[in-house]
Each structure stands twice: as C-alpha cells, then as structure tokens.
Design goal:
The chain has 33 helices and 8 strands.
C-alpha cells in the first residue's frame, strides 16, 4: 500500500469535490449528483484503462484508484458518524416534537412498508429466495437527506418540509440496519433468527442506543462546564463524541450505534444553546459543517468509484427489476403519506401536513450513502452466497443511482411547480420592511455625507449608493403603504419575536439567565415565531396562551404529588416556571422600547399602538401568573427577584469591563485579571432560591380552622391519615358525577364550586367533597382551583374512621354537607 500516493489521491478527490459545489450551483443540480457522476466516471475510466493500457488514464493511477483500501468499515466507522452527527446538530428537538408522529411514521412505518412491499413485489419475478429479496429491500428502504436538504435550502423550501425530511432520514437508518442484520443472519445461518428475537432487537437496539447517546451528550456538556470557553478543547472533545458513541454502542453495549450518534447530536443541539455561549456554539457548528462537507465528498466519490465493480453482473433483466423496486418504493411510500398520515390530523394527533408537502416528501425519498455502504458490506461478506450477494449489490447500486439521477434532478422543478419556494405573505412583507429600513438608513447616511462634504465626489458617491439600494428592489415598498393594520401588526410581532430570542440569548451569555430557563425560552420563541408567521396577530395571541399553560411534565409532577405525596419534582417544576415568567416580564419591557425606536419609524404610530395593545395583553397575563405566585409564596418571589437583580448587576459589570477594554481605557492584562476575579465569585446563574411548597401535613392542620378544637395528640393522629397537595389555578380537583373518594380541607388559596345552577367560591378553612362521602352519593359539582391552593386530602376510608372518633367535628361537617345539599336542591 503506497500511503503517500493514497494521501495525495484523497486530497485531490476532496479538492475536486469542493469545486463541484460551485459547479452544481451553476448547473442547478444537487452537488451529490455531480459527485456520484464524477466518482462513477473515474471508476469506469480506471477499469477501462487497466484493460486497455495507454488510453484514458496512466496504468499506475488507474491501479491505485482501483485498489484503494475502501471497505464498508471506512464508511460505517469514519464517514457516516460524521454525517449523521452533523445532521443531528441542526435538529431542534423542541420543533421536531411538534411533528413527532409524522416523523415516526416516515422513519419507522415507511421503512417497514418499503422493506416488505419491495420484497413481495420482487419475489415472484426475481427468481431469488424471499430472504434475499428482504435483504435487498432493507438496503433500499432507508433514505439519504444530503441531496434533498441541499435542494430544499437552495430553493428556500419551508422549514417544516425540511424538518420532516431531516427527522425521517436521521432515525430511519437504525431500523434499516437492524432489518439488514436480521435478514443477513437468517441467510448466513438459517434457523438462527426467531420472530421473538427479531422483534426484541428491533425494540431494544434503538432504545438502548438512544439512552446511551443522550448520556454521552450530557457527559460532553459537563466537560464543557469545566473547560469554559476554550474553543480548541471543546472542538477536540466534540470530535471524540460521535466516534466513541458509535463504537461503544455497537461493540460494548450491543445496541444501535447509529441511533447513539444521532441522539447525541440531537441532545447536544437541544441542550447546548442554554449551556454554552453563542460564540462557542457557532465555532462548533462551523467546524462540524466543514467536517461533514469533507465526509460527504468522500462518501459519494469513494462509493461511486466502486460502482463499476459493484455492477459487473448487471444484465438487461436487472433493469426491469430496478423499475419494479422504483415503483414498489414509491407505492409503499405513497401509502404511508396519503393513506396513514392524514389519519393523524383527522384524529387530532398531529397538525395537518399539506398535500404539496407530502408530494415533495414522496418524490424526495432519495437513496445514497447508507444504501451503498450496506451493499458494499454484503459484497465483502464471504458467508453470503455469491448469487445472493450479486443480486443484492447490483440492484441496490443501480436503484440508488436511479433515485439520484431521476428524482434528484426533478425535485427542484417539483418544489417550484408547487410554489413551495415562494415566501409567505408575512415573510415577503418582512423582507420589504428590511429593505425599507436599509434604504432609509442609507438615505440618512447619504444626506449626512452630502451636508458634510458639500459638492465633492464623496457626496456624489454616497448619493449613488443610495440610488442603487433603492433601485435594487423596485417592487419593495414600505409595508406601511401597502398592508392593512393587522398585516403591519403581524409583521411587527414577528420582528419582535425574533428580537426576543436574541435578548434571551444575550441574557444567558451575560450570566443573567440560568441555562435551563434559557433553553426553555429559546424553544418557546421559535414556536411563537412560527405561529406568528402563519397565524399573524391571532397566532401570536395563541402562543400567549401556550406560554402560561402547564406542560405535561408539570401535570405529571402534580399527579405524583397528589397521589404519592412526593413534592420534590413539583417544587422544581414550579420554580422553573416562576423563573421563566419573571424573565419574560423583563424581556417584554425591553421589547416595548425596541418597537418604539426601531419599528415605529417604518411601520407608523398606529401600528405600534396596536402592537403595544397585544404586548399589554401578554404582560397582563404574565403579571396575573406572577401575582398568583406572590400571593401564595411572597417570600420566595421576593428572593427570586433579588437573584435576578444580582445577576443583572454582574452582567452590567462584565459589560462595562468589556467596553473599557474596547475603548482602550484598560489593557488586555487588566481585563483578564478582572475576569479572573469575577470567575472566583459564586456562579450566579445557578443562584435560585429553593421553593418550599409549604406542604408539611402537620403545619397545614394547624392552619386549618376546622381542626382548631383538636388537641396535639389528635392532630398528630390526623396527620398520619391526611395527604397534602397543591392545586394550581385552573386545575380541576373534583368533577361532577364521579364517585367521591376523598374530602378536601383548604389551608390556603381558593376554589370555585360549580353545581351547574350556581357558583360558589371557597377559601381558607373551608371543606369540600365531604357531601359525597357522608350522604353516599356521586359528586354534585365541579371544583376548580382559582389560585395556588394548599389542601389536605382525607381518603374515604380514613374520613369515616376519623369522624367516628370525633363526634363534634362529625356533626359540624355533616351540617355543612346537608346545608349544601339543600342549597343544591333549591338551585
């Protein structure tokens, strides 16, 4: 093996592959198609030159190309982890979660449908065993996003379309590889694979890989906390992350290495914005984009070099089989996209995916590096019978080239024909707003220069620049001249949401915001931006409602506390929620100033007045939530606000030091010394007061008026029977018609009782739920918390025992129950 010559050849291939990118842009073709075409042409030229010396290439060069030590291990262990990891780094899991079910449908169901659909279509006519057809089908069932995403980004396809294809291709490789391994084992050792074992592998391999990849990402982030903003060390550690994840998952844990790498990348992308600075993340992202670019060049060129060798057994009949594969993959994919996917929106499980989107996803199912890598693995495996290997390798390679050159070259016209490359109305208006602002600022600059320099050439140059900017987009006029008030307001709200995200990231970078809060808010602003773009003012208002709504994890925490009496999880979830609300309140104040200073000159006072009204609605909603917390936990809110003040003071101190350094007042050495002294202080981003929910059972009993007559011993006995719990505003505690299982004693807060005929409010010292227990009847009313309320819950069996031991208290509770029953009967 001539190592120097191989190194030179690889460097040359990378260089020519890099030059293919601008050429592809000029030819309006995906770069992967040019790479595949160039690699295959070079492979055919090498074989021809060996058979006919002195023709196309020198014999030594042709031999070097033909004998390159390229195998499936190079792709699986070196190049594919790089591509998968970088693809995962651009995935926002919070956004993917919104389309999780459609992505799962494409990544799992579509792969299974394609595998068995293609195999059953080939089996009757291919003259090969069913297992051989299944093995081939598992290879061609996995899609490759490289060419598709490049086309999407080039034509400006919608974000959601890109998200669907990225999410599908990121996770379907693991299932395809698992199926490939199962069918390979069944061919090599018949009878060694059972249905139960295969099902367990398909379930456990991806789950195990996902868990391990997530743990590896968390470990990497912990290491970043130790090294700070050292970009060189951070990048070096990130290089180890995908390769260690893949190798340990595959060889030590025996789980899916592909899923481990993908999950590590997705977790890192989701968690990093709130844990590392934007500068460090940008450096990581740029580095991995470069690495992925090199890996993509080598994958397509090197696999394409092998195409001539992999298709030596090609026959005319194989072209018919390729057409069968092509038709079967399209049919099974269409069945999922047009048969199953609409059911998700029909039953309210997912937002609707439009027909144009589904058409593009259908035609965009290109095959690429993974299919060719697995085909190469089959050709290298001597245990696979040679006729089966030739059948699989030839058809998988031919079908991959067919998708690249047929679907890949026509995908761009399809997107444009469906109108998916055009900006939405709001986005076009925002573009016009940007051009209008730019033109206005250039005009001011030109005027200032003309006034300063009089009639000199410099003034003329400034005027010519202004004229050029104004003429660059003649159709773009100020949105205030062409749009309705609602349209202008929607534009302003979209701009404010984008600015809000920048503010949140600035607060995190300056140490004003805890990582967990920054992560939540950046995700919320992305969702708000999408809703405002598509729904305008009403979309923005809908996002306001989601902003204060309790998440599923919050509801789980409430349920755990209510049923098990465990308060720790709920305390953490509510503390996170309260910190988020205070940060939003701070940001809203700055957004008003931004709207007045930056947007009002372009959109007008009327528009900004409407914007302020919407922001006031949002501020009032946030204030109500904060006030509700303040009423229940005043000491906690006061301490939390103090922590925000301390963080803000630290941020201002650091910003002032940076300003003094940039202005030359202090030297770099002084700046470094000041930063070192600041770094030795406690980390204020983690400074948050603990939230005591006040759910100590005995203390709640002491504060509840109805138990005032009980002695200490009786209260201790009662404490062993009762369970404390917290109800948040809007939480339904009791529902009309259900079987009563407990009575509730209010220690603090308030609830609303709706009998269907009248509404009653109860507060501290009151009891509810007792009527169903004493009178042995179903619940007669809905009871909903209207404030944060701490209560004591006494289960039915414990209630009966308790009141039997305390006759006076029993009489009092029974009187309350009969009085309410009489009131309900009158109503």
């Amino acid at each position: 093996m001539n190592v120097p010559n191989i190194v030179v050849l690889i460097a040359t291939l990378v260089a020519f592959g890099a030059l293919a990118r601008p050429l592809a842009t000029r030819l309006r073709l995906p770069v992967s198609i040019l790479l595949a075409l160039g690699g295959a042409s070079l492979g055919f030229a090498s074989l021809y030159s060996l058979d006919h010396p002195g023709t196309l290439l020198p014999v030594d060069l042709a031999a070097l190309i033909t004998d390159l030590p390229v195998g499936s291990s190079l792709f699986l262990y070196v190049l594919l982890p790089t591509l998968i990891f970088q693809s995962a780094l651009v995935v926002d899991m919070q956004r993917v979660r919104e389309d999780l079910l459609p992505i799962v449908l494409l990544a799992l169901v579509a792969v299974l449908a394609a595998t068995f659909g293609v195999a059953l279509a080939l089996w009757p006519i291919a003259g090969m065993p069913l297992l051989a057809c299944l093995l081939l089908a598992s290879l061609v069932a996995t899609t490759d996003p490289v060419a598709v995403i490049a086309i999407f980004r080039d034509v400006g396809a919608p974000d959601r379309l890109t998200r669907l294809v990225e999410g599908e291709s990121l996770f379907n490789d693991a299932l395809a590889i698992s199926l490939f391994l199962i069918f390979s084992a069944a061919i090599i050792a018949p009878g060694s694979v059972t249905v139960t074992g295969a099902a367990l592998n398909l379930l456990l391999l991806p789950i195990g890989g996902g868990l391990f990849g997530y743990l590896m990402a968390r470990l990497y982030l912990q290491l970043l906390r130790l090294i700070g903003d050292d970009q060189v060390t951070a990048v070096s550690l990130s290089l180890a992350l995908p390769y260690l994840s893949f190798w340990i998952a595959e060889h030590v844990l025996q789980v899916s290495g592909i899923i481990a790498v993908a999950t590590a990348g997705v977790a890192l992308a989701s968690l990093s914005p709130a844990r590392v600075t934007r500068e460090l993340w940008r450096h990581l992202d740029d580095t991995w984009q470069q690495l992925a670019s090199w890996a993509a060049i080598l994958v397509f060129v090197l696999t394409s070099l092998l195409v001539p060798q992999m298709m030596t057994d090609l026959s005319p009949f194989d072209f018919l089989l390729m057409l069968v594969i092509f038709a079967a993959t399209l049919a099974t994919r269409a069945l999922v996209l047009f048969g199953l996917m609409p059911l998700l929106s029909q039953y309210g499980l997912s937002s609707r995916v439009s027909r144009p989107y589904r058409l593009v996803v259908l035609w965009g199912g290109l095959r690429g590096s993974m299919t060719l890598t697995l085909a190469l693995a089959v050709s290298e495996n001597d245990a696979v019978p040679r006729p089966v290997a030739a059948f699989v390798v030839t058809l998988a390679t031919g079908y991959t080239l067919m998708t690249l050159f047929v679907q890949g070259t026509t995908l761009r016209p399809l997107i444009r024909g469906l109108g998916l490359d055009r900006l939405s109305g709001i986005d076009r208006a925002i573009r016009d707003l940007a051009l209008s602002v730019t033109s206005a600022r250039v005009a001011r600059f030109a005027g200032e220069m003309a006034e300063r320099f009089g009639g000199t050439d410099a003034a003329g140059d400034a005027e010519s620049v202004n004229t050029a900017v104004a003429a660059a987009e003649p159709a773009a006029t100020s949105p205030s001249d062409t749009l309705s008030l609602d349209g202008r307001t929607a534009i302003a709200l979209v701009s404010l949401t984008a600015r809000e995200r920048e503010m949140v990231l600035d607060h995190f970078a300056n140490g004003m915001l805890a990582p967990r809060i920054a992560r939540r808010l950046t995700s919320d602003t992305r969702r708000r931006l999408e809703m405002a773009r598509h729904g305008g003012v009403e979309g923005y208002r809908a996002a306001n409602g989601e902003e204060t709504r309790f998440l599923w994890s919050d509801r789980v925490a409430f349920l755990v506390q209510r049923r098990l009496g465990r308060s720790r999880m709920l305390s953490k979830r509510l503390a996170l929620r309260f910190e988020k609300l205070i940060e939003i309140s701070l940001v809203l104040g700055r957004l008003r100033a931004f709207a007045t200073s930056e947007l009002q000159p372009v959109l007008g006072e009327e528009t900004i007045a409407a914007v302020m009204a919407v922001l006031d609605e949002r501020q009032a909603q946030i204030d109500r939530e904060i006030d509700a917390v303040r009423l229940q936990y005043p000491a906690y809110v006061a301490e939390l606000e103090r922590c925000f003040v301390l963080r803000a003071a630290r941020a201002i101190e650091i910003a002032e030091i940076r300003r003094l350094r940039q202005s030359g007042v202090i030297s770099k050495e002084i700046e470094r010394d000041v930063y070192r002294s600041v770094a030795r202080r406690p980390d204020l981003t983690t400074l948050s007061p603990p939230l005591d929910l006040g759910l100590d059972t005995r203390r709640l009993i002491d504060r509840t008026e109805i138990f005032e007559a009980l002695g200490d011993r009786e209260r201790d006995d009662l404490a062993r029977l009762m369970t404390p719990f917290l109800a948040a505003p809007g939480m339904r505690i009791v529902s009309r018609g259900e079987v009563g299982d407990a009575a509730y004693f209010i220690s603090s807060g308030a609830v609303e009782v709706d009998t269907g005929t009248h509404i009653v409010r109860l507060g501290r010292g009151d009891i509810f739920g007792e009527m169903a227990l004493i009178l042995d009847m179903r619940r007669q009313a809905d009871v909903t918390a209207i404030a944060y309320s701490t209560m004591l819950r006494l289960a039915r069996t414990d209630f009966a025992r308790f009141v039997s031991l305390h006759p006076k208290l029993r009489a009092r509770i029974e009187a309350i129950a009969r009085s309410r029953h009489a009131d309900n009967a009158k109503g």
